[in-house]
């Protein structure tokens, strides 16, 4: 039995965190256990699957069943503590942001390890962190968080850029990972706390109002 690498451990933790965020929303929508599990799995592995397919490698969850088991554990966790999780307004945000931060680190590291340029690493990190959430929101019939004015994908971009900058400066690997994850977490937290958002595109509304 091989000891999991640091990146695999981050993927496991990120999978658990993202799966909880998806299952928590599914339970609020009154999904049954299987439906909630599917939403959790899609949330957890959706972004990484798209990333791996684009990078022409075998999707990570197809070589290790632990990712599906992590999602099952997340379902069991929500079943046990669902009463408390559903009524805590910050629960979804906390688990979603933890998963986002960890998956951005994994996404940028995997891409750079395959010798792709920095700009590809930034795109792949953003997909890894946010695509699963987009699929989750579509499954539960919500407007994807990715497309709202709230800072989400931009936090992924900033975190990936921080990783690349630290890597170029020759910082130790674990410190680079911490700096990247912390950047994602801090940017997302501050954006929500202080209602920082990108400008909303309103040109279409103005044109419609003139008609």
Give the secondary structure arrangement, pairings included.
Layout: H1 6-28, H2 33-54, H3 66-87, H4 91-113, H5 118-139, H6 153-168, H7 173-193, H8 203-210
- Helix count? 8
Mean pLDDT: 87
**Strand pairing plus helix content: what structural class?**
mainly alpha
Radius of gyration: 18 Å
Shape: globular
Strand residue content: under 5%
The stretches of 5 or more residues where confidence is low (pLDDT under 50) are none
Span between N and C termini?
A: 68 Å
* Portion of residues within helices: over 70%
**Topology as H/E string?**
HHHHHHHH
Report the strand count: 0
Q: Describe the biggest sheet?
A: none
Give an overview of the whole structure.
By secondary structure, the protein is mainly alpha-helical. The protein is 74% helix and 0% strand. The chain is built from eight helices and no strands. α1 (6-28) crosses α3, α4 runs antiparallel to α5 and α6 (153-168) runs antiparallel to α7 (173-193). The mean pLDDT is 87.
Which labels suit this protein?
about 210 residues; mainly alpha; about 75% helix; about 0% strand
Offer a concise description of the structure.
The protein is mostly helical. It has helices at residues 6-28, 33-54, 66-87, 91-113, 118-139, 153-168, 173-193, 203-210.
